[in-house]
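Hey, can you fold this?
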Amino acid sequence: MSNRFFRLAVIPIVLTGLSALPCRAQSYSVGMFGAVGDGKTDDTNALQTAINTIPAGYTVDFGGPSKTYLISSRLNLQGNHTYSGTATLLMSKNAPQHTGIFKVPYGTGNNITISGLTLDANGVGGAIHVAVDGANAIPANTILILNNTFRNTLANPAGPWDGAIYDPVGLINSQIVGNAVTNCGTGIYVTNGNNLVISDNTFQTVHYGDAISLVFSAAPFAYGQGLQVLRNTGQHLGRMAIELWPNGTTQSSTVQSAVISDNAFTDWDSGFDPDPFGISIVAGQQMIVQDNKLIGGVAGFGIEVGAPLSSITQNTIQGFPVGIVLHDSHGTVVNGNLLSQQTIAGIELSNAPGSRANLSIINNRILSPKSVGIFVDVNDWGGSSITNNSIWRQAGTYPDDATGTFTGIGITPPNSPVTVTGNAITQSAAIVPGGFTFIGIRINGDAGSNANSSYQKNAVLSLSPAGQTIGLFGNTAGSLNGAILQNNSFQGLFAASGGAGSTLQSNSGNLVYNCTQLGPIPLN
């Protein structure tokens, strides 16, 4: 038997893609897949290859600030990845209008972090589209959008998809934190959030949409809990800073206890939208709106509330026609807010649909509103209390004061008794323009319509006893019939009371000092 020798051929194996990389690597550079990042080369295909190839659990690294990746179509992100770096992704001017930069796919785009990048839409479309191109039953889960810069989205967008961040389905267990939004048509738009934090973002020149919109519509998954909008700041908005609203449905039982706190927005720009509000909360219940600063409003409302059982506390609002307006907001507490320079009213109970029963409006400081300090424009506010508010108005503050009228508290008769007590209403000018009328408390309504309502311990003061400074004004004969009027003080006025007379249920302990005349309403 002859010996046989066998030679084993060594066949070289060429490892391609990621199989040649060390297993210990935690991130892969997009440059390994041919992305150039010179701002001129179209890197769309190279970047998409990197995104598609890098394994789940790893980081797609876009590199440092010297890199600018020109793209011409939307990049489809994969779930279970981190996308980070300090580079810029720049949308090509040749891309079709409304093209976004990143797409988080519907149904599979979970556990994604986008961090540190600059997304420059170059005036073409939006930046990040979340849970799009699918149905509406599966929210995106665990999406972290952290410390990115969004700029130059479509200046006059067709809709919120042309903004910085757009989610039309749902976003749960997620965070949008520390981002900068600059020169964008609209800002952050999220539908059906749950356990969602939007905090520490900045907004500059967002003119056509809200800086932050949280929208609620019918959905087959749990949402509306654990919402926090904290410490966001912005300047030069054309619409709203923060808006929570139901898309055609009421969400009182679903959306609860959102916290809108410590946000600061200033210097609204006029001419872009008819509703340039500060904060609008017209969804859910038990909302907490506190310690926000809204300065330089040019139209609309500082804070709009249409959510029952809410707490509106310690906010600072300067400008806007109306500081705080209450719609369907029964059981809400408005406490300790500082309101100044409203061109209509500091606080208004509007005549929109819904109940304003059992409100507590307490301890607010209202400085220099033009027409009214606290204005009640509806009778559905029974059981409410207006207590310990300070309202200050200096005659001559506004150019047309010579023909104007100011009312500290103006009341439409309630459908059940209310309490107005401990309020201080002051006219502080020593010289009042001729024709200016100052009224401390004005009571409207027919005879007996304010029966059993209580007006106690209020102080109306004017530093000038001009001919049209009046403490208590009854709009029609008998409008205060049956009301309780006790321990109030009227000082430095031309007339302690004015208008028409009434028969009071109780009118004891009232102080009239340094008033030229008592007027038609018996005070003692």
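Oh, and this one too while you're at it.
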Amino acid sequence: MGADLAEAFAKRGGLVYMPPDRNRLTLAYDLTVVTPGQSQGLLIPCLAMDKVPEDVQPNCVTIVNPTAPKVTIRKYGEFLENDLDYDPRNPETFEEDASFIVRGDWFFPGFYTAESVSMPDHMWMVGEEEITVSAIQDSEEYRFLASFAVVDHSTRSKSVNLTFSAA
């Protein structure tokens, strides 16, 4: 895997982005207030590759800010926050906290999930307005809130067809 520039949209609606006045991934419903630097992430091979099973290593990613590559998205508590790779909070868990297993078509065709490496069986999920990391639940609501459409900018010009549904 190389590096892919991508954006994520929650299945329930809203663009995932990092607002300038907060340090947590949040949903934007008014896309006119979001810049590409706030919504795009550069997906690189995960920092904790040696800690994930070989069969999921191709799907293990770390997400960095494309305009400031030292800024990395990491799980911190139940939230997804920016952190500096050269001076992270909780450095002993940084590599695992900044690594996610991304799977396509997991709950819904055409949608992706992101599982935390540091907390197996916990996935990204839409919270009140922020993206949280939550234990997998066997419910339709959880599957809906843990599903994201991903726009890969390296293939976007080659025709990306996304389908959003309210159900």
